[in-house]
Amino acid sequence: MIPYGKHIIDEDDISEVVKVLRGDWLTTGPIVTDFEHGVAKYIGVNEAVAVSSGTAALHAAMHALEIKPGDEVIVSPLTFAASANCIVYMGATPIFADIHPDTLLIDPESVIHKISKKTRAIIAVDFAGQTCDYVALKTICEEHNLKLVGDCCHSIGAKDEHGNSAGSLADISVLSFHPVKHITTGEGGMALTDEPELAKRMRSFRNHGINMDASARSEKCTWVYEMQELGYNYRITDIQCALGLSQLKKLNNFLKIRRQHAAKYKTLFLNHHEIKPLITKKDALHAFHLYIVKVPAHKRKAAFEGMRNQGFGVNVHYIPVHYHPYYMENFNTGPGLCPVAEEVYEGIMTLPLHPGMTERQVDSCAKGLDAILKTCP
Ligand SMILES: Cc1ncc(COP(=O)(O)O)c(C=O)c1O
Question: Is 268 helix (H, G, I), strand (E, B) or coil?
Answer without folding.
Answer: helix
